[in-house]
Amino acid sequence: MTDPVRVRPLADGDWDAVVTLERDAYTGLGLSEGRAALQSRAAVSPDTCFVVDVGARTAGYVLALPYPPHRYPDLTRPEEPPEGPPEGPPGEPSAVPPGNLHLHDIVVAPGLRRQGLARHLLHHLTGTARARGDQRISLVAVGGTEPFWSARGFVPEPGVVPGDAYGGGAVYMSKPVAAARQTRARPSLSPPAPTLREVS
Question: Could you tell me the EC number(s) of this protein (predicted)?
Answer without folding.
Answer: 2.3.-.-
